[in-house]
Specification:
The protein is of the alpha/beta class. It folds into two domains: about 150 residues, GTP cyclohydrolase II (Rossmann fold); about 240 residues, Dihydrofolate Reductase, subunit A, CATH 3.40.430.10. About 30% of the residues lie in helices and about 25% in strands. The chain is built from 14 helices and 18 strands. It has a nine-stranded mixed β-sheet with strand order 13-12-11-10-14-8-15-18-17, with helices on both faces. A seven-stranded mixed β-sheet has the order 1-2-3-5-4-6-7, with helices on both faces. The longest helix is centred in the middle third of the chain and has 21 residues. The chain is elongated.
């Protein structure tokens, strides 16, 4: 949006407790309404004290203590009143651009332990989706030649400058740090490079991310090596099963609805696992129930190739996986067109489902060396029953649910049910992660006898 794409409609005098302002109303080409709160003569002026403020209903109106938005808005009004001249541009882009409903969902994730960045990412958004072309257009309409910008956000400075706004000075706005907003402000500094002076968190050391903890990193490297050796020997992908469960083995509520179990540190580990695998496999049931993105967002690393078992091509057009950076492969029993994906037709097994063994052969021929399986329960059960899974990384959350379990091995004779060998566990946040090779029962018994003898 350029200056010519935003139109001023009207204005009115607004008396406030710090002085009289004039409120200008604007409408952009996208029909969004924006505002400019102006004090004094700013037309044609230079070095005008200014604040470009994005709407925050919870902070600006309700006085929420979760953020510093309302405090910044009112501090900017007081500073402008003290100088007798200035502009506050109020942009309608709630929740750093994700909207009020999604911001409230992000708040719920933050209450579970995720920081403000990870919460946005988990909801399928960028950490910050705001843009400032409307602000540049408003400043142009007001004929403000240069501004002293009240902000702690260097990205805002860069964005406005790139739109042709002349910024002669950055004026910091130091927030009040409270028990409710301390973590939020630390995240702004550590992950969004905001320029704030915050008190030490105690020992002055930021908590170590799960995916970079030394032992976890060693286990990831060992798993990578194990997978590469397997592919070199067998020319089919190494299969890692990874999921989160409660203490009683539940992965979903009793009615099958999704259940968020793992904490933020365990989620980072999941994303690190995704990054080390060539591909990630789920069933169509997981897509229909959870609508996952299956991308790497919480750590640095490559994006896995998404593969969906969808025998009857039930993939919804609105599925978020169809927006994946890599075009998904859909393993089906029939040909068909799915916009944004490639259909891989495979033969059925004796139960009329996609033949998983043939799928692995096909993936190996396509150069896929290792596959991570995140669900659902039917896919995990089939892989275990067929002996096609090689390794498991299972997150155990310390709670009871009484819900739907991760697998059903009732069709397997008890003597043939696989076990975990070379088991190791790590503690990540409040969760326990079990690492182990999936082995035949007799192999597990031999390993146990050997360990006892030693």
């Amino acid at each position: 949006m350029t200056a010519g794409q935003i139109a001023r409609t009207t204005s009115a005098r607004i008396p406030t407790d710090v002085g009289d302002f004039r409120l200008f109303h604007y409408v952009g080409a996208d029909r969004k309404e924006h505002l400019a709160l102006v004090m004094g003569e700013v037309f044609g002026a230079e070095n005008v004290l200014a604040r470009v403020h994005s709407e925050c209903f919870t902070g600006d109106v309700l006085g929420s203590l979760r953020c510093d938005c309302g405090e910044q808005l009112h501090a900017a009004m007081r500073r402008i009143a003290a100088e007798g001249r200035g502009v506050i541009i109020y942009l309608r882009q709630e929740g750093r651009g994700i909207g009020l409903a999604q911001k409230l969902r992000a708040y719920n994730l933050q209450d579970e332990g995720y920081d403000t960045v990870d919460a946005n990412l988990l909801l399928g958004h960028q950490a910050d989706e705001r843009e400032y072309s409307a602000a540049a257009g408003i400043l142009s309409d007001l004929e403000v030649r240069s501004i002293r910008l009240m902000t702690n956000n260097p990205a805002k400075l860069d964005h406005l400058s790139s739109l042709g706004v002349t910024i002669s000075e950055r004026v910091p706005l130091q927030p009040s740090v409270t028990a409710e907003n301390a973590a939020y402000l630390r995240t702004k500094v550590q992950r969004m490079q905001h320029l704030l002076n915050l008190p030490s968190s105690g020992n002055g050391v930021a908590p170590e991310h799960a995916a970079s903890a030394p032992r976890v990193q060693q286990l990831l490297e060992q798993l990578q090596e194990r997978a590469d050796v397997h592919f070199a020997a067998h020319h089919v992908p190494f299969v890692t099963i990874s999921y989160a469960q409660s203490l009683d083995g539940s992965i979903a509520n009793a009615d099958g609805t999704p259940l968020r179990l793992s904490g933020p540190e365990a989620m980072r580990l999941t994303h690190a696992l995704r990054a080390m695998h060539d591909a990630i496999l789920v069933g169509i049931g997981t897509i229909l129930a959870d609508d996952p993105r299956l991308t790497v967002r919480l750590v640095e690393g490559p994006q896995p190739q998404p593969i969906v078992l969808d025998s009857r091509l039930r993939m919804p057009r609105s599925a978020r996986i169809l927006q994946h950076p890599r075009r998904p492969w859909i393993a089906a029993l029939q040909t068909g067109n799915v916009a944004g994906a490639d259909v891989v037709v495979l033969p059925p097994d004796q139960n009329g489902q996609v033949d998983l063994q043939r799928l692995l052969v096909e993936m190996g021929e396509r150069g896929v060396r290792h596959i991570m399986v995140e669900g659902g329960a039917q896919v995990i059960s089939r892989l275990l029953c067929l002996g096609l899974a090689n390794y498991a990384v299972i997150t155990v959350a310390p709670r009871f649910v009484g819900g739907y379990h991760a697998y059903n091995l009732s069709a397997v004779a008890p003597a043939s049910i696989p076990a975990l060998g070379d088991v190791e566990h790590t503690s990540v946040g409040g969760d326990v992660i079990l690492w182990g090779a999936i082995v035949a029962p007799h192999t597990a018994e031999i390993s146990a006898e050997k360990a006892t003898a030693e």
